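Why do we care about 3D structure at all? Because function follows from shape, and shape follows, mostly, from sequence. That is the central idea of this module. The next example makes it concrete: a single protein chain, its amino acid sequence, and then its structure expressed as tokens.
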Amino acid sequence: MTNVSIITIGDELLIGQVIDTNSAWMAQLLNSQGFSVTRRVAVGDSRESIWKALDEEAQHAAVILVTGGLGPTADDITKPLLCEYFSGKMVVDEQALKNVRHLFENVFKRPFTERNKKQAEVPDVCTVMQNRRGTAPGMIFEKDNCIFISMPGVPHEMQGMMENDVLPLMKERFQPGQIEHRTLVTFGIGESSIADMILEFENALPAHIKLAYLPNFGMVRLRLTSKNSPEKNPAEEIGHLFNQLRELMQAHVISNEDQPMEKIVAALLLKEKLSMSTAESCTGGYIAHLLTSLPGSSAFYKGSVISYSYQAKQDLLGVDGDVLAKEGAVSEAVVRQMVTGVVAAMDTNVAVAVSGIMGPDGGTDDKPVGTVWMAAGNKDKQIVQKLHFRFTRSRNIQLTAVNALFLLRKFILEDKQAEA
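And the structure:
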């Protein structure tokens, strides 16, 4: 199997100003096509760091993918460094120059300057990849049986080059391996408990099949991976093992595919032909954001009422003022009324409501920071849950959202079973 290393360049990556999404996207794409990404390295805008990274990754991989540092400003040092590293000299690529000039004069509607012209300069020892989505061309170099491919750091531009140029080249030059993944999603059970439940199963796995535990916001994804299986049909082999794993974890499984909670709930709503709405206090619209991030969400999602204050809960959702005064906003009675209020306001079949104290302050002795009440249901009945989180404000909000959606899933399934 062909090993691939990814080098991402930029001080902004090291200080956390920009999150490195490029290497994650590339790794997913390559893995899906049978290429193994064995190392991912982030380095700053330093000549010594980049040079050292190129040397080191050439010891581990046949293909080294590099993103970043191809702009026209002084801190963009990747291109001149590559020119020196591969003993070349800078020349103007006429096709790249034509592309840059066209973009500035016809698309950006800005003057074309000498600095912009530098975008079309490339080392004379590389093969140029034209940038269909931007100004900086990509470059392909070869040295000591390794292929080095440099691409822009702008994600949209890099992705275009990967799909149109890099991946076809790699498939032509190298024989992709056989990689099969199957992922089971569980909820409400921790890693250690799962490990105890499937100990015998995990110990009996063939050497070429690995099991990974991937926890996130109350969910644990169990991923089975087969690399270069000796079996004639690796998909069939891993499918058989996946079925065994699913049987062992049956009580906790929420999906047979690697997908987030909002997508799982969306699929259930569409299947049951149900519409939903949300009444959010402590999450401030985050549940609505998760749902509306899904393409086609208008088929099941009608809207949200973000009732952050007592007054908004009364005016927009019809929550009883006496109940608010007696029980407080973070209470079972209030989230039940929030559900019935938003179902009526949005005219939906079901809804979910949340009210809590996300922190870092605002807690009391009887309702400390992290206390959350949530309800899911319809105009006639609801199920409720009280949870206590102990994390940062942002993580508490995310956990509240995921648990609320899970509660809605539970309500729908239980309601369906009661009707059967």
